[in-house]
Design a protein that fits this description.
The protein has 313 residues and is of the alpha+beta class. The chain has 3 domains: 97 residues, no CATH class; 133 residues, Jelly Rolls, CATH 2.60.120; 72 residues, Ribosomal Protein S8, Chain: A, domain 1 (2-Layer Sandwich). 31% of the residues lie in helices and 33% in strands. It has 7 helices and 18 strands. The strands form 3 sheets. Strands 1, 2, 3, 4, 5, 6, 7, 8, 9, 10, 11, 12 and 13 form a 13-stranded mixed beta sheet that branches. The longest helix is centred in the N-terminal third of the chain and has 28 residues.
């Protein structure tokens, strides 16, 4: 292939305009570098390298528009810059794509619970309205993202591969233990309770606490404060079919009712909206039974309109 055509193909590839045979030719050329050791670059270094290469190569690429031509040895030097620069940028781009961590997303619907066995044999029990992301490859480490909801973890012991769960701004790290994390987005408190073993909990920039068996950490998302308390049995009651509302605001209560029974609970009464709700329900109840029990306990009336349940005095 002529030197001039090579320059054109590489230029189009770097600009994202190479397709078909031209793009495949560059890709195949890249594949020949598989055994080359890549020097990692930051985004700033990549941008600076790209600009430096372009500043040196651009005059050569436009030589056809000039009356004079460069000496042959300068043309060769320019081609070396093009090839080396293109290899560096393409390798770095491809390497970044290959290093991206792949996750599988698993969700539960209204009132649904689901048991998941992770790649290492750890067991996860998902509560209603929960979404998690599980790292596909557990060969070097074990990562879980609790996007929304509540999960009970029974983690297989592996001292070489810590098991980490990210939930909002908190990261829980364990080697082998069983614990529960309640991290519904709409709830102000995020709770981590240890049933057996030991876990460490860290925030965005610092470690918060180490939790032992039958200890619980309650983190306030608004104030960014936390407290460590004895494990409240209500945190894990959902596993046995009991739904425990523990001092929830109206909006938090409505969120839990929606996720577990699929109903919208509303009110036009400001006093009811400012009430705190503490109730125990059964997950086996029908939606109507559940809202009627909640209303009775708090001495409220309930009526249904347009598929919404209104609470009133």
């Amino acid at each position: 292939m002529e030197e001039k055509n090579i320059r054109r193909i590489l230029q189009r590839y770097l600009l994202g305009n190479a397709h078909g045979e031209d793009g495949n030719a560059v890709d195949n050329w890249y594949d020949s570098f598989d055994n080359e050791r890549l020097v990692p670059l930051s985004e700033e270094e990549t941008a600076a390298t790209r600009q430096e290469i372009w500043d040196k190569v651009a005059p050569v690429l436009s030589e056809e528009k000039k009356v004079w031509t460069l000496p042959s040895y300068l043309k060769v030097a320019a081609m070396i810059l093009v090839i080396a620069g293109a290899a560096l940028l393409i390798l770095h781009h491809r390497h970044g794509q290959q290093d991206a961590i792949a996750f599988t997303t698993i969700s539960t619907g209204i009132g649904e619970k689901k048991k998941v066995t992770a790649q290492d044999g750890s067991l996860l029990l998902l509560n209603a309205g929960t979404t998690i992301r599980i790292q596909n490859d557990f060969s070097s480490d074990r990562k879980i993202e609790l996007v929304d909801g509540e999960v009970f973890f029974d983690v297989k012991t592996d001292a070489q591969r810590p098991f980490t769960v990210t939930s909002g701004s908190l990261t829980t790290t364990v080697l082998g233990t069983s614990f529960n994390i309640s991290a519904y987005k709409e709830l102000n408190n995020l709770s981590i309770g240890v049933v057996d073993g030991k876990v460490s909990v860290a925030g965005d920039s610092a470690a918060l606490s180490v939790l032992l068996k039958e200890e619980e950490l309650v983190f306030n998302k608004t104030s960014k404060t936390y407290k460590k308390i004895p494990l409240d049995e209500s945190l894990t009651a959902w596993q046995s079919g009991r739904l425990v509302l523990n001092d929830l605001s109206f909006n938090e209560m409505a969120t839990i009712m929606k996720k577990n029974y699929g109903i919208d609970v509303v009110t036009n009464d400001e006093a009811i909206r400012n009430t705190r709700y503490t109730t125990e329900l059964s997950s086996a109840m029908s939606p109507l039974q559940a809202i009627q029990v909640l209303a009775a306990i708090h001495e409220l009336k309930v009526r249904e309109k347009n598929k919404q349940f209104y609470l009133a005095k």
